[in-house]
Amino acid sequence: MSQTKQPLAAPPAIIVIFGAAGDLTKRKLIPALFNLASQKLLSPKIAMVGVDRVEMDSEAYRQTLGREVKSFTGEGFDQALWDANIGKAYYMPGDFRDAESYLQLKKFLLQVGEEQGAPCNYLFYLATPPSFFGVIATELGRAGLAEESDDCWRRLIIEKPFGRDLESARALNATLHQSFHEHQIYRIDHYLGKETVQNIMAYRFGNGTVEPIWNHRYVDHVQITVAESLGVEDRASYYEEAGALRDMIANHLLAVLSVVAMEPPNSFDANAIRDEHIKVLKAIQPFDAEQVLLDTVRGQYGEGMLASGEHLPAYRDEPGIAGDSHTETYVAIKLMIDSWRWAGVPFYLRTGKRMPGRYSEVVIQYRHGPNMMFRGVRERRSDIEPNRLVLRIQPDEGISMEFNAKVPGTEFSVLPVRMDFDYEDYFDESVTSSGYETLIYDCLCGDATLFKRADYIEVCWELVQPILDVWQALPPRSFPNYPACSWGPEEADELLARDGYQWRMVK
Ligand code: BG6
Fold first, then answer.
1. Residue 85: what are its φ and ψ, rounded to 5°?
2. Which residues line ligand 1 (CB under 6 A)?
């Protein structure tokens, strides 16, 4: 994570993308590399090599990438910048399971290095289906491509999902460690790369007024929402196996939670920060079967309608989805953290597809003052609203504080008002970032702060495993249980209502 205002270009390297013809490469990685190039954050000696099973040559690959990126950037496409950077990409067809392909790759990388003047630093990006993560790492190791020397580093970025349960995540960690050292492995969670998620640390630890009231004495409860308007799109085979718990809670929402609830690290060092993330996740009260039934809610969207009148199909009617699918597209859970700071403060997490909007936020709801002296003098509301700090992750990025103010007039009544900070008022919004820019840049620079260590991944799965087990043993009876374009099943509202709360209405 860079702390300087004008970061330097990342060190030269060859970026090797496995899954080069896939969706993630087209939608996220190439645009992110292009954004980095336009911000002058890539070395002129950077080279990119795509590897995939599709047969084509480098020229055809460059043209495909160019077409894809133009369709995202539209008229703002800078051809000269493209030609000088991604436009020089190489492609090598290869079978991820075939040892021979890796020996060819080794030779190919030497050739690319010579042609581009790129050094022997290799960043291997695994943008493949997860079933290939272990085999690619193993074959890279066998081909000698994981070995570092004084002059050359070798790094591996692994996409999510990292395993599909605790056992498989442990097994994958063990497989990776047979070929790569932990310091070479960068497990990605693009939520940690989002500016607004990184800003939670800046807000908490860069302001003297925030931390003193960031604890159980002042905070009543915390809500973390990641709502998506999209449905399953064309990812049926992945999503049917994953579901919202694995796809979002086990990684992105727990990642946000760890940043919100962590203790201040002793330094800005990668391991100091990651130690604190893990410490807070380990302090979450583990779920037993009873608690899973009580404190978790799962949902699946049925058909629904947009405000425009457009009909939205039910999850079970989406292409590639089983007509009796039990996969959850919505999850809400209540967590308690057994720590000095958070004892007694509930954390409510929810995420869902086909919500009425794309909206991610963290709400810190504060306790009332000790003596509500205004009660009874107000006519317009029966109670005083609590103070809420809303950290808006996306799309309307910013922070707001909701507090009460006196309504002008002779009568002394108060109403809630809002103080807002919007990123666009202060910062250059043309510096676009999906999170991937920061993460690729950090990996090239060897900064692992925003990546997940092996122990972090396993702690997340330890937490989620009992929920997976109970849900598997008791298939849902009421799916679909929320209409597309709604805020999820009623049980999710009841989860909070039981404690006297409600989800913050997104305005
Ligand atoms: C991905 C999930 O990791 O994150 C997707 O697999 C989800 O299902 C996406 O849509 C959300 O990311 P973002 O950045 O669009 O909020």
1. -125, -95
2. 160, 190, 228, 247
